[in-house]
Amino acid sequence: MSLRQHKIATIPGDGIGVEVVDATLKVLQALQDMHQTFTLNIEPLDWSSKNYLITGTYIPESAWPKLKAYDAILFGAVGSPDVPDDISLWKLILPLRKRLNQYINLRPIRVLPGLSSPLKSCAPDQLDWVIVRENSEGEYAGQGGVSHEDTPYTIANEVAVFTRTAIERTMRFAFEVADSRHRKKLTMVTKSNAQRFGLVLWDQIFYEVAKDYPQVETDRMLVDAMTVRMVLKPQSLDTVVATNLHGDILSDLAAALAGSIGVAPSSNLDPTRKFPSMFEPIHGSAPDIAGMGIANPLATFWSAAEMLRWLGEGDAADHLMRAIEETTQSDVRTPDLQGSATMMDVTNKVIWAIQN
Ligand code: GGG
């Protein structure tokens, strides 16, 4: 029987990104050995802040045609104390998302079996959300500039850009996600009382698209009130759609409420499948613990499971999720989950669960 082949680029990036991607490759190898039905042809790309400091480049321009031919990308993290954060973000992760048409950032958040929410009144089954983050524009449009620099009159403009095309495709994607879930419920988050042009357009398009999904229950929240609702009434939420910036902030809060940002995955999707989608943990490069061997690799394992599912390897994805959940039900936990295990202890536990 011939094996299904998938061409995967890995971009470990910075800090703990390097460690968690390395651990994930071990887990993916164990899955391939068990299944014997697919092969991941892995090509590592050393695009990092360390490399940037030597070469002056994160992504060489000549790499784009080859990059577009991968089936998927597994990304670690970006951010280094030696490079301004806006440079590493705008030269590494944001060009990947933008030039590969990854206009949806999908962030499932739930309390994994064995873990608990820091919210005392929240039973694990009361927090099971999917956040759909617009991933191509909005507050991350990169428009603006600075004038009158080095004077008391410095002016900095940061222009958020919202287009009908990007809003509508995000809304449709979010309604499809909501419709596919048991509760069929979608909450849209904006700050349209203050941001009265772009986010009023969000409101308008939300109601337009909602007409095509009468079976989906909808509501609308301002982002400040949403943070309160996430904490006080987590069970009232299911699928959430938000702008690029709001989605980023809310999903960090959501991950913390589900136990730790160390277990939260994300998928940067090109729903047209013309370009490779990219899978990465929500967390960043965590320079404070980089090199200590205590980073939680579960967020990247879960992201890899989402990658396998996207590639059509649903059985392997389910297998990996079962192994992750067996691990979260054990006492093999990294410090972010109040344990004393190392990253390798967790990795070995997941591999053992895959093999047994
Ligand atoms: N693995 C995700 C990562 O490195 N995140 C760093 C970060 O600051 N990301 C901002 C964003 O996702 O927009």
Quick description:
This protein is of the alpha/beta class.
Q: Care to describe what's here?
A:
By secondary structure, this protein is of the alpha/beta class. Helix content is 40%, strand content 22%. It has helices at residues 16-35, 49-55, 64-67, 85-99, 164-180, 198-210, 223-232, 244-257, 298-310, 314-328, 343-355, and strands spanning 4-13, 38-44, 72-77, 104-110, 128-134, 138-147, 155-161, 185-190, 217-222, 239-242, 265-269, 277-281. It is globular and about 55 Å long. Glycylglycylglycine (GGG) binds at residues 77-79, 89, 248, 280-281, 283-285. Glycylglycylglycine (GGG) binds next to β12.
Catalogue the ligands.
glycylglycylglycine
Shape summary: globular
Alpha carbon gap, first and last residue: 24 Å
Distinct helical segment count: 11
Strand content: 15-25%
Structural class by secondary-structure content = alpha/beta
Low-pLDDT parts are: none
- List the strand order in the largest sheet: 2-1-3-12-11-4-5-10-8-9
Order of helices and strands: EHEHHEHEEEEHEHEHEHEEHHH
Main pleated sheet: 10 strands, mixed
Average pLDDT over all residues: 97
Give helix % range: 25-40%
Topology, please?
Layout: E1 4-13, H1 16-35, E2 38-44, H2 49-55, H3 64-67, E3 72-77, H4 85-99, E4 104-110, E5 128-134, E6 138-147, E7 155-161, H5 164-180, E8 185-190, H6 198-210, E9 217-222, H7 223-232, E10 239-242, H8 244-257, E11 265-269, E12 277-281, H9 298-310, H10 314-328, H11 343-355
Glycylglycylglycine (GGG) binds at residues 77-79, 89, 248, 280-281, 283-285.
